[in-house]
Amino acid sequence: MKIVNNQLPSFHQSADILLVEDNAGDVRLTEEAFKDGRIANTLYVVNDGVRALDFLYQRGEYTDAPRPHVVLLDLNLPRMNGDEVLQKIRADSEFERLPIIVLTTSEAQHDFVRSIVPDADAYLEKPVDPDDFIDTVRTFESVWLSVGWVEEQEE
Q1: How far apart are CA 45 and CA 94, in angstroms?
Q2: Which positions ≥6 away from 97 have C-beta within 8 Å?
Q3: Distance from the Cα of residue 118 to its chain's centroid
């Protein structure tokens, strides 16, 4: 995990996490890692950029969705790519303090991602090996959630 912006918001015991990911295998591995972590976080999943914005703005089928404390955002999404989603979120003052962690596919992609996605708070590499992927998610959970880098959002 590479931290881009290490501001330390207030401590939060548990978090609602929005995972924006279209790869079913990565979703399954992420769910497994969070479940095995045994920290009281709730993972919500949408599989494209349009649904991500609907979730955040509580539109359509997501009218009762909670406001997430953090967003894990894949860049390669159908309907609206992750960079466009991030730009729309960051353009809205309502979400200016919402931590957004961009998911990348390789270490080599980090510098590229940092140059095209400057508004991300951090980025996580999605390893190819399933065990490494689970370890990455657990590291995210322990660093961003357990030590309190995720700010409690007002309801």
Answers
A1: 21
A2: 9, 151, 153
A3: 15
